[in-house]
């Protein structure tokens, strides 16, 4: 039988200190944690060169709200628009433009608008995917998740996607101004400098 009267039921000082430090339910940050966070961003690029491509047979660069929205967001974030192009919605034209742009030293990311739906002339995703060395499925998933709040189940018709071609990031967005703003401002730009560094296309040099 256990003698509860003789048993030491007091916590030692170390236990008291541990309890006090966790009263608020949060762990204090440590130098190790801070070092880990800093290391996570070691490869970040301070300024990313971005190519903005509008895929359309009906738009012009002077009448391109989606492209304008991407350019404004990129520049507001402190990055550089290396070039802006308009490409007709033909498979070979889109793929040729992407192949050319991803080979440029001053372009670390390409953002396209238009051609991500399900009509016969929506060829952007089909033209881009064969070029991908790796796909970034999380981009399309997150874009559709956020867009669903605005357009509901219509989002299943969007094939927005992202990938990496020879160290250059490629993001394919729908052609509406709202979709281009959402995808660029809320998803691409917060991670652009980090992903560009990880992909190995550093434009700081």
UniProtKB/TrEMBL annotation:
Superkingdom as given in the UniProt entry: Archaea
Chain positions covered by the region annotation Disordered: 1-47
Any one Gene Ontology cellular component term annotated for this protein: cytosol
Entry keyword set: Molybdenum cofactor biosynthesis, Nucleotidyltransferase, Transferase
Annotated Pfam families: MoCF_biosynth
Claim: Transferase is one of the keywords in the record: yes
Record domain MoaB/Mog: where: 51-195
Acidic residues compositional bias, start-end: 14-36
Sample GO molecular function, one term: molybdopterin adenylyltransferase activity
EC numbers, comma separated: 2.7.7.75
EC class (word): transferase
GO biological process, one term: Mo-molybdopterin cofactor biosynthetic process
Family statement: Belongs to the MoaB/Mog family.
Name of this chain's protein: Molybdenum cofactor biosynthesis protein
Organism: Halobacterium salinarum (strain ATCC 700922 / JCM 11081 / NRC-1)
Biological classification of the source: Archaea, Methanobacteriati, Methanobacteriota, Stenosarchaea group, Halobacteria
